[in-house]
């Protein structure tokens, strides 16, 4: 349909609704700020057809501080359908007028009575096909419910005080099937605080327990066909739930009962089973801020390596494998970012249609984008019913898929090269509620014009190329200060792990520390995120400083060769393997390195280092700890002097000769004394001489 005709259609619908009145009611609004919410819980049939009766049920909740009386619910539908997606978008841009005409025939609306503050009431409206007064043309009919009521002043407006809208397709048989699929994101809703514990342990437990948001979302996702579902997993969620079960990173004073731990275990088991069932897409640990990494190329490599390690460690632990995928924020995509994320070319990036201004539905939801580093796949998300009134429900999700598929198959009738599909991704924060089964989501994949298709299967097909521009990013990424603090965690952690023989667990924990401060979530609390990153960097450095080396203040050798003691102290909680290397102030002297030795946790070891000064008289040495890969780590010992007290050879000879002379003199003197003594003893006593 041409643009002028679309404008005429929208204007016509606006006029119909604006001029619609109910006799006997004033035209002015009774309450200028009605605060009620409406949720559509069921709609049948899911596809409109002659002879059917449209039945819609749901709930109305009064959030005003006063009651509403004589509340009524009316079905609303236009006479003519939308046949293209652009018509829907134009109508939404023009406000609520596109909803249609209110059906006021007797027996077609529901009298709810009075609605007290904070009260919720159910509604049910039934309208036979003939009373819809529609043209019966093929297309997508917006259908909804409008709530009317009387305020405390007794005034009742013809304007709805609340409304909700969805879509109802009318498509005959014989049309081409189009791909239909749902992406189910499971993200970690919680974060670690300044002390390392999760800030809302009870909230996470509530989310994964029966009736919780994540539990309901998983149950709904598991009810759909394997061919029509793709799990999008944040490994941080797997680790977080497992931490709950093991009581790890749980604040002091929070005690989980065996029943609560069992609930968490059931969720973890069911999530893994769902993800393994049809293949999954895997985000980087805690959904990292890839724009911030791309904007800081000097820090990107070590930080990306840490994120990858945290991700891989979680996947290995839980025996889950999937395709790596990146998910920037809605307005945080740039062409340079896509270039950096391209990698090997098989890792998709999830973007919104706002990021690709020239993208059109006819290209399909999965397109190929060519970067300077080569082509890569993009999943473009574009919600049909974004901005329509009412709360999201399983019914609105089902009708969104069916309506997208209906519009896509109608487009292919006039554009055979169109690749339009019905792929949608749900909001990760959406709670389908415990009564999700009433929405009959499976009906979306049973229509004659839908073909259940997983994203993995779509990537095996030729993709349409997107050659347009990428919009400029307007989202503000994480600060460089936060990234630098995370990089310091990497540096200190790398040094520490290099001296721990069994360092996998230490490396994985440090990688999680790094990834946990690089998530998109920290954009909302940049100060807190940076403070936590700096604290973790300080802790990693403090742990490394627990490994110390001590040398003597000075050493004096009795010759050119000798030894001196070196003491290594390990106050960490891990056994280490470390060697020693020396710097000498005398370039002519080299002291051999000490081979690495094992030192237990909390122990110290003193070793003797042999040295040969050769012809040198003295030198100043500095001892450094050395890892098994040859890198110096930690702080060196204080410099100390080593000198030799050796005496020259000539002096030694002279001293030897002098000693011999002294010895000879002593022997001679002793011999003379003995002879005189003997002569005196042999002389007669009366000898007169």
UniProtKB/TrEMBL annotation:
This is Uncharacterized protein. The chain crosses the membrane at residues 649-667. Pfam families: DUF6049. Keywords: Membrane, Signal, Transmembrane, Transmembrane helix. InterPro entries: DUF6049, Ig-like_fold, TAT_signal. The keyword Signal applies. It comes from the Bacteria.
């Amino acid at each position: 349909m041409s643009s002028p005709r679309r404008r005429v259609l929208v204007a016509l619908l606006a006029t119909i609704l604006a001029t619609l009145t109910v006799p006997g009611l004033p035209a002015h609004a009774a309450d200028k700020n009605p605060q009620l919410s409406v949720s559509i819980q069921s709609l049948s049939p899911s596809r409109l057809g002659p002879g059917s009766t449209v039945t819609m049920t749901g709930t109305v909740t009064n959030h005003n501080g006063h009651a509403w009386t004589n509340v009524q619910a009316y079905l609303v539908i236009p006479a003519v359908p939308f046949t293209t997606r652009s018509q829907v978008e134009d109508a939404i841009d023009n406000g609520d007028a596109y909803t249609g005409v209110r059906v006021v025939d007797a027996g077609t609306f529901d009298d709810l009575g009075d609605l007290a503050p904070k009260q919720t009431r159910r509604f049910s409206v039934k309208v036979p096909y003939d009373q819809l007064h529609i043209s019966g043309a093929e297309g997508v009919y917006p259908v909804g419910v409008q709530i009317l009521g009387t305020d405390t002043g007794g005034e009742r407006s013809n304007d709805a005080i609340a409304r909700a809208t969805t879509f109802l397709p009318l498509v005959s048989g014989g049309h081409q099937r189009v791909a239909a699929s749902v992406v189910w994101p499971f993200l970690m809703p919680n974060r670690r605080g300044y002390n390392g514990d999760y800030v809302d342990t009870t909230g996470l437990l509530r989310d994964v327990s029966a009736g919780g948001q994540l539990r309901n979302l998983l149950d709904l996702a598991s009810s759909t066909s394997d061919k029509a579902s793709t799990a999008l997993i944040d490994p941080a969620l797997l680790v977080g739930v497992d931490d709950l079960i093991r009581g790890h990173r749980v604040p002091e004073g929070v005690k989980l009962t065996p029943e609560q731990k069992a609930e968490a275990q059931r969720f973890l088991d069911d999530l893994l089973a769902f993800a393994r069932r049809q293949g999954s897409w895997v985000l980087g640990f805690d959904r990292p801020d890839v724009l911030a990494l791309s904007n800081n190329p000097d820090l990107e490599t070590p930080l990306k390596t840490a994120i990858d390690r945290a991700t891989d460690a979680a996947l290995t632990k839980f025996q889950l494998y999937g395709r790596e995928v990146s998910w920037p924020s809605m307005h945080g995509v740039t062409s340079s970012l896509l270039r950096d994320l391209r990698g090997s070319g098989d890792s998709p990036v999830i973007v919104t249609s706002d990021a690709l201004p020239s993208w059109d539905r006819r290209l399909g939801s999965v397109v190929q984008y060519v970067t300077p580093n080569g082509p890569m796949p993009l999943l473009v998300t574009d919600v049909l019913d974004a901005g329509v009134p009412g709360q999201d429900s399983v019914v609105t999700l089902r009708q969104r898929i069916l309506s997208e598929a209906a519009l896509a198959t109608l487009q292919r009738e006039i554009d055979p090269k169109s690749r339009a599909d019905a792929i949608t991704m749900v909001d990760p924060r959406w709670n389908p509620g415990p009564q999700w089964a009433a929405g009959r989501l499976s009906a979306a994949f049973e229509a004659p014009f839908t073909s259940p298709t997983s994203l993995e299967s779509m990537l095996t097909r030729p993709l349409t190329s997107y050659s347009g521009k990428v919009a400029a990013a307007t989202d503000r990424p994480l600060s460089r200060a936060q990234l630098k603090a995370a990089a310091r965690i990497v540096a200190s952690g790398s040094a520490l792990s290099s001296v721990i023989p069994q360092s996998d667990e230490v490396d994985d924990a440090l990688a999680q520390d790094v990834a946990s401060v690089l998530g998109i979530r920290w954009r909302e609390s940049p100060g807190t995120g940076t403070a936590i990153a700096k604290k973790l960097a300080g802790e990693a450095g403090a742990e490394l400083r627990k490994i110390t080396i001590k040398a003597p203040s000075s050493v004096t050798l009795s010759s050119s060769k000798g030894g001196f003691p070196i003491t290594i102290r390990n106050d960490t909680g891990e056994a280490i393997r470390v060697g020693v290397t020396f710097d000498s102030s005398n370039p002519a002297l080299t002291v051999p390195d000490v081979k690495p030795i094992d030192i237990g946790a909390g122990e110290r070891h003193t070793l003797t280092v042999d040295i040969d000064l050769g012809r040198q008289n003295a030198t100043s040495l500095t001892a450094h700890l050395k890892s098994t890969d040859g890198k110096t780590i930690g702080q060196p010992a204080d410099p100390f002097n080593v000198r030799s007290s050796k005496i020259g050879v000539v002096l030694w000879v002279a001293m030897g000769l002098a000693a011999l002379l002294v010895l000879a003199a002593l022997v001679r003197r002793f011999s003379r004394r003995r002879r005189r003594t003997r002569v005196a003893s042999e002389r007669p006593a009366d000898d007169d001489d």
